[in-house]
Amino acid sequence: SQTSREVQIAASAESGSEAELQSLDGRDQSGLLPSLFKTLYDGQGGAPRLQPDSRALRYMKRLYKAYATKEGIPKSNRSHLYNTVRLFTPCSQHKQAPGDQVTGTLWSVDVLFNLDRVTAVEHLLKSVLLYTLSNSVSFPLAVKCVCNLGIKGPEVSTKALPGAPYSLTFNSQLEFKKKYKWVEIDVTTLLQPLVASKQRSIHMSVNFTCVRDQGRHPSAQNSSSDRTPLGPPSLLLYLNDTSAQAYHSWYSPRYRRRPSQHPDPERGLSAYPLGEEAAGSVRASRHRR
Amino acid sequence: GQETVSSELKKPPVPASFNLSEYFKQFLFPQNECELHDFRLSFSQLKWDNWIVAPHRYNPRYCKGDCPRAVGHRYGSPVHTMVQNIIHEKLDSSVPRPSCVPAKYSPLSVLTIEPDGSIAYKEYEDMIATTCTCR
Is B119–A35 a contact, with Cβ atoms under 8 angstroms apart? Predict the structure, then answer.
């Protein structure tokens, strides 16, 4: 009868869409499309969600305005290769000992990021630790800092880094100035192997040692131990989603060739040019061809 | 030829029932010809604004209208479209006329809140129809 046929159609559509949801990378994909399918079938606005950090949300809205028009069309004047940017706030954090006047270490924190939302078709191009400077923070002058990063714990899988030390350290020079709202620390080299090996959680320790311009250590009194001038960092991943649904602005529509859906394992990340110059050479060679 | 001309002149000019405007109508564009239409929606109407943060307004557009019989180059239609028209008109009306569908799309950037509270900026292909065709 008509109703039973409708029921069958709905069921097959449901299973079809479920299959479609599961077919991507074998796990429930969270992207826009599966949520749209779910919404079309169950009519809800997707699964209930944890509320994001307001400062992180403000940063991502600012990034959106930089990359897309009000109507949501990606701006054509961008030169970057990524079509996905994910911002993670730590799922747990542990502040360590308060500032130490001798070493000048102003503040350090242990954070754990859960990267479950990164899908297998998303390839890391760049990764940044993002510090939001709250308005209450006032650095009297420009302060130079060295940031010492360590990846800790058994999560550092040896298969990703054969002969890998139990933790990786990494220094980065940076300068805080009065007017800054955000400070970004590029941690791509540190995270690349971990994200490429599908690491799901990353345990990181971050220590800042700062020196004021005149070479004096900012006295600990400036930053009372209970008020570290910086909140916990967020982790930004700039990714290239290689799935068919994602928009690949960097290859000319004339050829309309999609990058291989399953990158050549031997070539690994080199299949995805990392920098703008790489994109330029890709474009140049393509035009020559 | 004077006889011919005079005989021609004696004929009634056009049958009284002939309607000139009707005659020209067949050369005008059909009123509801296949073309692109706007449909502006906001994600709050769909109650999706709890997880789609941006854009606030989205105009996916859509194609609607009749496909003229001689579609030709105007819609970028292949010759098959005219063949389908002829089959529909001359051989078997159960074969449908060609349909008015999108031919090209543009991408859309979306800012969403994931179930775990992380925030994702993603660019999706083929989210806004930009031209229509008859197929």
Answer: no
Q: What's the distance, CA B127 to chain centroid?
A: 18
Query: pLDDT in tens for each of the 135 residues of chain B?
Result: 677 777 777 766 666 567 777 777 666 666 788 999 999 999 888 888 888 999 999 999 999 998 887 655 567 788 898 899 999 999 999 999 999 999 999 999 999 999 889 999 999 999 999 999 998
Angle at which helix A32-42 crosses helix A2-23, to 10 degrees, equals: 160
Tokens describing residue B10: 């004696």
CA distance A270 to chain B (A): 22
- What is d(CA A33, CA A17) in angstroms, rounded to the nearest whole number? 10
Residue B117 with chain A: CB contacts under 8 Å: 49-53, 89
* Paired tokens of A54: 């307001």
Q: Do A52 and B57 touch (CB under 8 A)?
A: no
Separation between Cα atoms, residue B105 and residue B125, nearest integer Å: 8
DSSP codes joined into one string, A102-141: TTTEEEEEEEEEE-TT--TTEEEEEEEEEEEB-TT---SS
Largest CA distance in chain A: 86
Q: For residue B107, what are the CA distances in angstroms to A249, A289, B121? A: 9, 26, 13
Structure tokens at B81: 């479209």
Q: What are phi and psi of A191, to 5 degrees?
A: -90, -25
